[in-house]
Fold this protein.
Amino acid sequence: MDRVILALVVVVGVPLATVAYVAVIEWALKFLPYKTRGKLRPWLWLAPGLLLLAFYLVYPTVNTIYLSFLDARSENWVGLDNFRFAFTDSNMVSAFKNNLLWLIFFTAATVGLGLIVAVLTDRVRYETAVKALVFLPMAISAVAAGVIWKLMYEWDPPGTAQTGTVNAALGVVPGFEPQAWLVNTDYNNAALIVIGIWLWTGFCTVIFSAGLKGIPEELLEAARVDGANELQIFRHVTLPLMASTIAVVATTMIINVLKVFDIVYLMTNGNYDTEVIANRMYKEMFNFRHFGRASAIAVVLLLLIVPVMVYNIRRFREQEAIR
């Protein structure tokens, strides 16, 4: 019964409240001078959204910064001790190292492969089918992807039938020994990064494909008439015109990879030297119940992401200004 009431409130009550709010502010604005109405109306319309944004985004951010200077139970002031821990603890150092690996290889692979697929399939007969196939992993949640790839990386002792797809497929190679992909510290981070690449390459492909469609066909034909081959056209025409799109996609991938969590949490939970910043933050908060350290790690993660977001927004505005 409670769920039914809640559903009615959401489905009926929220729209009615919105209509009532608009009706009230429009009625109140009638009593104000005409010029004042024009200045107040946008802010009054935005007021509910701004209040929700402040409550759900601004307040938690400020409160997290405050908690990062307190102890485990948020009772006593400890200054910068939590930040000192964030940059000196061995687990955190490992997390920063692994995040750097994700940042380099995940970003390069998703952007590079996405651009290659978009260019090779642009304006060809099988374009839709290939892009749909590449984009398909985006329809799968990270949780489902983790379950799928955990089964694919499954390891069985040598000499027995391999139930894991990867070991079974590579078993046809002479001399290959089945590998415990998620346990061996030599390549388990690479195995996790492959999952991220599999998930996000489709997103990059679709964005790059849209950017390629915006390049005037006349420019490409003019380059061909002048004797340029396809590689030269790609290097001297396509890439310069796609530079802003590549920058936006790359920064988007950087933001995603800096806060990578779900894949690592599901596959290894940060064990076997696969720890990342977001997963360590989760452990400090919910496993070790140290709110101060968890908040400090969250602040560090925020400080790493904000400059990239600002750059991304600026690039987006530059693109809009050009259009």
